[in-house]
Amino acid sequence: MSSPEQVLDVLRAELRATGITYKGLAERIGVSESSVKRMFGQKDMALSRLAQICQATGIAMEDVLRRAADARPQADALTLPQETSLVANPRLLLMAICCLGHWSLEGVIETYRLTEAECITLLAELDRLGLIELKPLNRYSLRVSNAFRWLPDGPVQRFFREHVVADYFAGGFNRPGDALMCLPARLSGASAQELGQKIEQLAGELARLHRNDRRLPPDERDGYTLLLGFRSWEFSAFTALRRG
């Protein structure tokens, strides 16, 4: 749910966009300008008053509420208990990853051996955990931001290392767009930090492309995974050859 402050912020922005001042709004709803200022200054507003203002100004109340909901603060990560719950149930983790990929319920059912009832149960659990907000007709919106990351060395990352990494690198990396590189380098701390920032930028670019391509039909998109690792490291077999 969006907060009253967010609803008022959106309503204020809508009024500015339509060129309606506090004075003009006061004339439309039959109160003084000071009363209007007080309404917005109190950071809260009765639903009946919101409906009155929207009707008097031609602003759709549904749009105000939707935009306020979309603007609510979103988490960049889950908590340790939330991630622990996900890895305890592989089907729940699968549904979580599908939701992060903005899959529809129908798409999940068509692709995986999950019934509609199972999917709805999993969506309800993800809503309880705070990853999504479940809406009518089994639609949902994410409660996490575009900068979402799994916890460093958290339950999901450990699950991926144990069960996913070997399967991922077992592929041929020979399809158009695939890439596999292992590039050693000796860097200063400052250079390593600079490269880390560029990796963050790359992750942001991936998120941007992902959002843009959501407009395309499902049959024009394919599943891609960017798996990045960058740390100070030496292969243990090479370390064993070091001079004492």
Automatic annotation (TrEMBL):
It holds the Pfam family HTH_26. Residues 10-64 form the HTH cro/C1-type domain. InterPro entries: Cro/C1-type_HTH, Lambda_DNA-bd_dom_sf. This is Helix-turn-helix transcriptional regulator. It comes from Massilia phyllostachyos.
